[in-house]
Amino acid sequence: MRIIAYPRAGIAYTECFYAALRGVEVIDGVWAGRWILANVRRRDVVHIHWPSFHYAKGLAKFFVFLLFMRLRGARIIWTAHNLYPHDGGRTRQHRLARLFLTRIASAVLVHGAAALEIVATEFRVPRLKLLRIDHGHFIDYYPHTMSRKDARERLGIPAGRFVFGLVGLCKPYKNLDALLEAFVQVRGDVGILIAGKFQSQQYFERISSKLNTLDRVTFRPGFIQDVDIQLYIEAIDAMVIPYTEILTSGSAMLALSFGRPVIAPDRGNLRALVPPSCGILYDESGGLLQAMRLAPSRAFDAQVIREHAKRFNWEASAARFVDALRPDAISRRELVDG
Question: Sheet containing 45-48: which strands, arranged edge to edge?
Answer without folding.
Answer: 25-28, 2-6, 45-48, 75-79, 107-110, 130-132
